[in-house]
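Q: For a teaching session next week I want to show students how multiple molecules come together into a single three-dimensional assembly. I've collected the sequence lines for a complex. Could you give me the predicted structure tokens for the whole thing so I can convert them for display?
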Amino acid sequence: MNRALQIIIPIALGIAVLALWQYLVRAYQVPAYVLPAPSDIWIAFTENFSSLMASLWTTLSITLAAMALAFIGSVLLAILFLQSRTIETALYPYAVILQVTPVIAIAPLILIWVGLEHINRALLILAWIVAFFPLLANTLLGLKSADHNLTDLFRLYGASRWQILWKLQLPTALPNMLAGARISGGLALIGTVVAEFAADSGTATGLGWRIVEAGNRLEIAKMFAALALLSLLGIAIFFALSLVEYGLLRRWHESALKKQV
Amino acid sequence: MSALLSLSGVSKTFDNGVQALSGVDLRVEDGEFVSLLGPSGCGKSTALRLIAGLLKPDAGEISFPGGKPETGFVFQEPTLMPWRKALDNVRLPLELKGVARKDAEARSRRALARVGLEGFEKSYPRELSGGMKMRVSIARAIAAAPKLLLMDEPFAALDELTRQSLNDDLLKLWREDGLTVIFVTHSVYESTYLSSRVVVMTPRPGRVAAEIALSPPAKRDASYRLSAEFSANAAKVSAALREAMA
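A: Of course. Below is the structure for the complete assembly, covering every listed component.
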């Protein structure tokens, strides 16, 4: 299948589904508080444009900040684990506990600790918690996968630990780190939204809160508009990270190699 | 000739209980081309790693009468960093030794040219064939102008023609640079063709079973491979290997 078709087919399907949706809602006179027509959603979107854009910006900035902090934190922790087996043994189980405990269950506690007046700080912490582990696990795996013979070669030429880390282990781990980042990007967005739901308070201003608010007021069209923006945001994050991955790996990594069929 | 290195009574047992080497004595003269020949699992690679200082012997001593020489190592796999271009792979030893980048690049360029890879400086390993990757690996090993070159079955995974051409290139480097080469192999023909001395080892635990000094002609080429002299030498080496296995 060629590239153009790969893009055209899903878009055509999307348009067809929207048209059918529009037709069915109008034909059967479905009330707007049950299922609004796509045109109603569009109107709701334009009417609430500035508040939705402000919310999008809030959600985006918290998600990006959480990703950045998760990236820095997980890489530093993975490097620390690599240097000391003892530290890894001591801390890794707690990283797992943090990961397997559902974020929605931790959210109320974090909100109380941080205080509702610092709601964005709580959101950041919760998004960070869910984004952290996939990055840590993948980075650690990558750092440990450095070729043993290459490690020996570095040692033969008298390389320091720092040189082995910087010139061998981190480049080896790069593909894993990027795979982890792609998972974490989606999770950070989920974390941000879930935390806003849990906060259930007007001090939050992200897209998650817009959905809660619209739901309370039965503004279903606005709810859909916020939902669509969230999906687009998720897709944008995914593509941005894929682009970074492609840019960094395309010259040398097998995953970026085009197969001759 | 003076001894470059000598092993006396060297033994090595791994944590899993496998005794790789037991009481190995070996003396390598300056400028020799020595092959360590033996079946898989006879501790040839272990001996090489001990000489490189990557492993420590349990017993015995490895000494370098003239001081530890600058050493290059070539593995069975090309062992290149896939994220670095050929030139930057070759540059690694110089880089780790703190040679200034410009100087290191010039020397790496020369090393690549000497293994016949002029024009491939900017290629990534995945763009190169198996034989070319091995050439990059050899260029890396000679980039820092070593005195001693350790090779661990470097050509075992290559096809016959590539292997023969790399054999000839290796002999050329050895001759031109006055290298001392210790070459691990399980091929009778390869060791006969290359070496000035073949050291035959016994399997489990590895021991030196026989040493065969060869006097190959100054010019080793395709005609030597077909000569009666080569056949006679190979037969001698082969008989020693069979005896070691028995």
